[in-house]
Design brief:
Strand content: 5-15%
Shape: globular
Amino acid sequence: MKFNYNFKNIKESYLFAEVANRTETYRKANPDKKILKLGIGDVTLPLAPSVIEALHGAVDDMSRQQTFKGYGPYEGYDFLRESIREYYRSNGVELAMEEIFVSDGAKSDLGNILDIFAKENTVLVPDPVYPVYVDTNEMAGRKVIYADATDENGFLPAPDYKIDADVIYICSPNNPTGAAYTKAQLKEWVDYANAKGAVILYDAAYECFITDENLARSVFQIDGAETCAIEFCSFSKTAGFTGTRCGYTIVPKCLEHEGFNANKMWLRRQATKFNGVPYIVQKGAAAVFSERGQSEIRKNLAYYKRNAELIANSMDTLGIRYTGGKNSPYIWLKCPDGFKSWEFFDYLLSGAQVVGTPGAGFGRNGEGFFRLTAFGSEETTREAVFRIENLLKK
């Protein structure tokens, strides 16, 4: 028996586990201090009333033989897939039902999708990057190369035709930097992928925060994407499903290479390894797309957007450079006074009892930067901003 030796290539501790460990150590040493958390991107508002009603109704369905549901379709129930299809249509994107796969979250499918790709593929990810993109590929033994996302390019690297990549990860709006590609910039990546015979794994988990019409809500708003892209989205940030777990993945039927069809392969993979998202959860997710649900969701999103504006305005007051805060729930700031990322983490925790996420945890280019999230309560956000300003003004 042998274990997967590729696990030696990944960090022993996941970034957010390390943040939690340091925070807990400080809490135990300072039990009288109130710690405010603007680190992990977890939502704080409860599920929308229409979603709760749908969940309760689905529980009642499970109590009656005539409406009871056992195993569901691997791709998801038609009532939810049709709602997703209509949502894309409202953004100018036409999808076939067969291209929509309901999942238990974008994070899961971003890792699971790798089952349909060969281990010999070279994987291109931006740096800084959401750690899941790197870790899941290194666990499988793939070669990972990096596209530098820096202050100079606005943390939005452009494709380099001198580099040959097979699998490309793009997250827009980006986690962690909050930067978002324009449609014209995204078109460059689509053209590059089609020219190289590569696939873009497009993480659209934060598309609901986009308000600028020049930014893409979906990669499939870009001509040519249907032959080179797979899109992942989630109800976690859109509707507060971080603990309820539901998302969806779009795999175009015309995404083919060397006689293999990605859509058919993904369906086959799901049929083998996945028994679907619970009926109860899917009914709740479908309520998100109702007219009432959309109205309630917009109010929740506006709440988080106000929090982002509060943090961004504070950075402006302090004269600290940042990206995000608009079209994104994240504020990616330059650590002041030459602080390194983990040094600034410790400084904020000890001096203001505020927890953020060190940029160095997202990659080499994240050193010297820091991420704050707008997903806290308004009370927590206001108090955290007040404490940060008082500390840094000193």
